[in-house]
Specification:
38% helix, six-stranded mixed β-sheet, alpha/beta, six-stranded parallel β-sheet, Rossmann fold, binds NADPH dihydro-nicotinamide-adenine-dinucleotide phosphate
């Protein structure tokens, strides 16, 4: 029997999840149907209830419903609790379980696919929204030497740094910073987890942070060279990545959680990759 899954968002046309999960299922010989649901604003619960009633086994959640999904879950993973957001629900058990695989997908792409370790490295995280929050635990699990969180609204960076500090392993220093105070500081890896690139904007990060930087990572995907990546390249960074690998890796985590086998991601990453030029 065909197993039903879906992704819900608003808008949803852009979503690559049906393609990604379709490719995963095909590569593993699984029989699934994965659809897109345009969730009505204010109608998340009814839409997911309908999928469950139709036998749906799992659902991915994208903007603006990650908080609704958090509320919908009967129980949540530590990652989801810490992120305050759920991007994946398992619907076929007695209790609805919520997960957040965004951060784990980001770290898997960075460390495994791109071969850039975070252990012992100085890491700069720009932004303090949902994606940045989701990345905290997976980042800290790698044991960076330093994790600095910079955000436009300083209070949110302080809040995230305080949470991160509670989970930091011995040997990892964590602090919040304003953008201006980053001048003259250097980092090994810089992640842009702001949504600035979605509007073609540049977070006000000084170019000096890229001095000696091994990787500039833009979480947005399919945008080509964003202002952030261009700044990094102009500052001498030779390795850039966007969030396509993160997208594929979080999807692979969801697939594995739902179906017990982790698909390979290389082929979908390759076919979704937009050249950075
Ligand atoms: P949120 O809306 O939760 O957070 C947005 C963040 O961006 C806030 O910290 C905000 O700062 C900051 N910001 C927005 N505009 C600017 C600007 N012009 N200058 C500086 N800071 C700015 O978004 P998400 O966390 O959900 O998403 C962040 C990014 O991650 C997006 O690009 C998104 O596409 C990407 N993403 C990628 C995924 C993937 O699989 N590749 C998965 C999830 C997200 P402030 O608090 O001051 O408003």
């Amino acid at each position: 029997m065909t197993d039903k899954y879906a992704v819900i968002g608003n808008p949803i046309d852009f979503s690559k999840s049906p393609f990604i999960h379709g490719e995963f299922a095909r590569s593993l010989g699984h029989d699934i149907a994965y659809t897109k649901i345009l969730g009505p604003i204010g109608g998340f619960k009814e839409a997911v209830d309908a999928l469950r009633a139709a036998g749906g086994r799992g659902i991915n959640i994208t903007a603006p419903f990650k908080l609704d999904a958090f509320a919908y879950a009967d129980e949540r993973s530590p990652s989801a609790e810490l992120a305050g957001a759920v991007n994946c629900l398992k619907l076929d058990g007695p209790r609805i379980v919520g997960e957040n695989f965004d951060g784990v997908g980001l770290v898997r792409d960075t460390v495994h696919n791109l071969g850039q370790p975070l252990a012992g490295r100085r890491v700069l995280l720009l932004g303090a929204g949902g994606a940045a929050r989701g990345a905290l635990l997976p980042f800290l699990a790698e044991g960076p030497a330093e994790l600095v969180i910079a955000n436009r609204s300083d209070g949110k960076a302080q809040e995230l740094a305080a949470i991160a500090l509670r989970h930091a392993p011995a040997g990892t220093s964590v602090r919040a910073s304003g953008y201006g105070a980053l001048e003259g500081q250097r980092f090994d890896v810089v992640f842009n987890a702001t949504s600035a690139s979605l509007r073609g904007e540049l977070p006000p990060v000084p170019a000096s942070v890229f001095s000696g930087c091994a990787l500039a990572y833009e979480l947005a995907y399919a945008k080509g060279m964003t202002p952030f990546l261009r700044l990094a390249v102009n500052a001498g960074v030779t390795r850039c990545a966007d969030g396509v690998g993160m997208l594929a890796e979080q999807a692979a985590e969801a697939f594995a959680w739902w179906r017990g086998v982790r698909p390979r991601t290389e082929a979908v990453i390759e076919s979704l990759r937009v050249p950075l030029e």
